[in-house]
């Protein structure tokens, strides 16, 4: 990994962390929109709309206009869903990282720095529903620094911290559209343990599935 240092979060990193997270999440809007277009319900609504307008108006213009409007509104719904998630995350833990992650010794937040610039983030907290696990959160690497092993190193830092703190496993959640992240976790030995629908109306229409992954530290030493 080229000249990248992983260190604990400091308060002066706050804005850069929020910016990286916002960019990292927003980049999933196009793939989520494509995911929406692949859903049978979306295709059915679009087809019924076009056919109904075509037969009732006997013109091509109205169905084309309606289909364009439908697609634009669908894309806006995806943007809205991501913006809401970003805002909620910033209001929740990312709005006060020191308070959320650095007050208890089992939690932590790290950043990856390259030439004085923040290029990656990751945090961990005790998993709410699994007392033996720490939850890996907010993994993100700046686009310009991808493919250099930074995420791998950040995950290894979390695994090391988890083992050191006496927890048996690392747990995390990712989504159906975060395919790079899925490959990363599977490559590191994480096992998919659960699939469930993301909360919210738009997410359910979108069939936006979340995946839970787990790395058992007793049996898997790959991330050492
Ligand atoms: C997922 C993410 C963190 C990966 O960061 P990265 O620094 O590029 O990852 P690394 O260079 O450490 O790659 C490690 C492994 O991940 C997998 N991987 C990462 N990006 C990949 C891609 N584009 N295609 C295929 N595999 C990929 C590979 O297995 C890779 O190992 P290899 O290089 O030995 O093949 C980054 O793409 C990102 O920040 N995405 C946006 C935010 C996000 O979705 N975060 C996940 C939250 S759950």
Automatic annotation (TrEMBL):
Gene Ontology biological process terms in this record: axis elongation; chordate embryonic development
Cross-referenced Gene3D superfamilies: 3.40.630.30
The residues that cross the membrane are 44-73
What region holds the N-acetyltransferase domain? 68-218
Task: Specify the protein name.
Answer: N-acetyltransferase 8B
Give the top-rank taxon of the lineage listed in the UniProt record for this protein: Eukaryota
Q: Which UniProt keywords apply?
A: Membrane, Transferase, Transmembrane, Transmembrane helix
Give GO MF terms, alphabetically. Answer: N-acetyltransferase activity
Indicate yes or no for the key word Transferase.
yes
* InterPro entries assigned to the protein according to its UniProt record, in alphabetical order: Acyl_CoA_acyltransferase, GNAT_dom, NAT_camello-type
Asked if the Swiss-Prot or TrEMBL record annotates the protein with the keyword Kinase, the reply is no
**Pfam families in the cross-refs:** Acetyltransf_1 (PF00583)
Q: Gene that codes for this?
A: nat8
State the PANTHER family in the record.
Answer: GNAT FAMILY N-ACETYLTRANSFERASE, N-ACETYLTRANSFERASE DOMAIN-CONTAINING PROTEIN
């Amino acid at each position: 990994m080229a000249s990248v240092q992983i260190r604990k979060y400091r308060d002066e990193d706050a804005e850069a962390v929020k910016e990286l997270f916002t960019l990292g999440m927003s980049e999933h809007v196009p793939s989520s929109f494509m995911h929406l277009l692949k859903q049978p319900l979306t295709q059915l609504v679009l087809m019924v709309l076009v056919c109904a307008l075509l037969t009732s108006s006997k013109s091509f213009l109205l169905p084309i206009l309606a289909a364009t409007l439908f697609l634009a509104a669908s894309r806006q719904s995806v943007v809205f869903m991501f913006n809401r998630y970003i805002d909620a995350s910033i209001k929740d833990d990312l709005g006060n990282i020191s308070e959320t992650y650095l007050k208890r010794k089992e939690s932590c937040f790290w950043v990856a720095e390259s030439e004085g610039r923040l290029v990656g983030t990751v945090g961990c907290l005790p998993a709410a529903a699994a007392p033996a696990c720490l939850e890996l959160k907010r993994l993100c690497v700046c686009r310009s620094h991808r493919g250099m092993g930074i995420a791998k190193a950040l995950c290894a830092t979390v695994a090391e911290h988890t083992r050191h703190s006496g927890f048996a496993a690392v747990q995390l959640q990712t989504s159906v559209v975060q395919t790079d992240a899925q490959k990363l976790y599977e490559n590191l030995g994480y096992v998919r343990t659960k699939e469930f629908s993301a909360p919210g109306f738009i997410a359910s229409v979108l069939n936006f599935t979340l995946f839970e992954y787990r790395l058992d530290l007793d049996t898997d030493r790959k991330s050492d």
